[in-house]
Amino acid sequence: MVAAATPIASRIKRPDIASQWQLMWWRFKRHHMAIAGASVLAVFVAVALLAEFLAPCAPLTRNPRYLSGAPMLVHVLDAQGGLHSPFVHARSSKRDPVTLRQLAVVDESRPWPIEFFVRGDPYRFWGLVETDLHLFGVKGGFIHLFGTDHLGRDLFTRCMYATRVSLSVAVIGVLVSFVLGAVIGGIAGYFGGAIDVFVMRLIEFIRSVPTLPLWLSLTAALPRDWTSLQIYVAVTVILGLLGWTHLARTVRSKLLSLREEDFVVAARLAGCTDTRLIGRHLLPAFLSYLIVDLTIAFPEILLAETSLSFLGLGLREPAESWGVLLYAAQNIRSIAHMPWLLIPGLFVIVAALAFNFVGDGMRDAADPYAK
Asked: Which of 171, 268, 277, 323 could form a disulfide with 306 if both were Cys (CB 3.0 to 4.6 A apart)?
C-alpha cells in the first residue's frame, strides 16, 4: 500500500494542495514592484513606531544658532581624503550685511563626529517609558540632516513624528470607511428592496458632490479653538465617513451575485441568521477583493489629509503631519530661500506610490488561479 501510494503522492504539485491564501502569497511574491512597495511601507511603519528614538531631538526644540539652516551632509572622508567615521562639518552663523539675514557658515576644518545611542532631549516612548536615548547625535555641536525651518526646528525630527501622525490618520480613516462600507453595502446587497434603493441613492448623492469642496467645507466648520488632538480625531472621522461609498457599492454588487448561490441557500436552510450568513459565508467569499479595495484606499485618505493640512484646514500646529510641514512651504519666498521645506512632500509621494504598488500586487494576487 505504501509503495503504491508513493508514485501518486510524488505527482501532486504544491498548488494542488495549497490553500487560497498560500496561492495568493505566492502570486504576490512574483510582483516585484509590490514587494518593493511593501518594503517601503515596512520602513515607514518602523519609523512611525520608533519616531522618538530615531529623531535626534524633540520636535519643538529650537536651535537659535541655525535658523533656516540648510541640510547638513554626512561625510566619511576628511580634508586629506582619508577614511573617517561619519561626521558633519561644524557650523557658525553670521549676519548678511546687505539683507541682514542670518547665514550659516560651514567650517570644513572642524568635524563634528556623529555618535550613536547618545543622550539627548528626554521623551516618553509611546507615553509609557521615560528615557533620553536617541539613535544618533553630535556632542559639542548639532546635526540637522534635513535642515531647519525659520524657527530653528529640526526638519528630520519633525518628519519622523509626522510619519506617525499621517499614517495613523490613513489607517484609522480607512478602517472607519471599511467598516461602514462593508456593513452598509452588505445590508443593501443582502436585503435588497427599499433598503437597497435608499442606500444606492445616498451613495449617488455623496459621490455627486465634488470631493475637495466637500472636505473643505466640513473641515472649515471645525471650531478654531479646538486642540490639535480634537482636530486630529475630527479630520480622521470625516475622512473615514466620506470614503465608504466605493467599497459599499463593491460589497453590494458581490452580495447580489452570491446571495442565491447553493451554499448560501444551504446555510439559510440550516438555520443561519442573517448576520451569521453575511459575516461567515458571504463576506469571506470575496474577502480578497475587500483586501484589495482596502489597500488602494490608503493613498486616497493619505493625500486627502495632506491636502487639507497644506491648505490650513486639516491638522494644525503644534501637531506634526506631512501636510502640516508642507504648510510652511506655501509661499514662493519660503521655497526660494528654504527649498528643503519640500522634503516632506517626497515622503507623501513615496508613500502613495508604495500603497499603489502594493494594491496592484494584491489585485493581481486576488485571483490566484489566473495564469
From this structure: 323
Digit-coded pLDDT (tens) for 77-95: 776 767 778 888 888 777 7
Is the whole model's pTM more than 0.70, yes or no?
yes
The answer to whether 37 and 357 are in contact (CB under 8 A) is yes
Distance of CA 267 to the CA centre of its chain: 39
**In angstroms, rounded to a whole number, what is the distance separating the alpha carbons of residues 250 and 61?**
47
Domain-ending residue, one of 119, 153, 187? 153
Select from 99, 127, 153 the last residue of a domain: 153
Alpha helices in 192-209 (DSSP H): 193-208
- Residue range of the domain that includes 42: 37-49+162-365
Does 112 lie in the same domain as 237?
no
Q: Do the Cβ atoms of 364 and 27 come closer than 8 Å? A: yes
In eight-state DSSP terms, residue 74 is P
Helix (H) or strand (E) holding 290: helix 287-310
